[in-house]
Design brief:
single chain; about 90 residues; mainly alpha
Length: about 90
């Protein structure tokens, strides 16, 4: 079982990690989860730059995965394809 599904009750995660995961859930799945309590918890554990970095990274990663899905590919496949194309171009030059 994926322990991320139940991170809130999983003792393997620190309180700080659980807050970061709550924030990530809000960004990826339900912005209404970003209520006053979450923001208070975020500010208690993270600096403003850290909160921005967490949010940016969650959005960037999620967006990248969605883009790869529009290409009908998975992570790593596009990079492999591009490397193969570059090698072919060098060979023919």
């Amino acid at each position: 079982m994926n322990n991320l599904e139940n991170f809130a009750s999983d003792d393997r995660y620190t309180q700080r990690e659980k807050i970061a995961l709550r924030y990530t859930d809000a960004i990826l799945w339900n912005p209404e989860l970003a209520d006053d309590a979450l923001w208070a918890d975020l500010h208690a554990e993270f600096t403003e730059p850290e909160i921005v970095e967490l949010g940016y990274w969650a959005g960037f990663t999620s967006g990248g995965q969605r883009w790869l899905h529009t290409l009908h590919t998975r992570q790593g496949e596009l990079a492999e394809y591009m490397a193969e194309r570059e090698a072919e171009e060098k060979e023919s030059a």
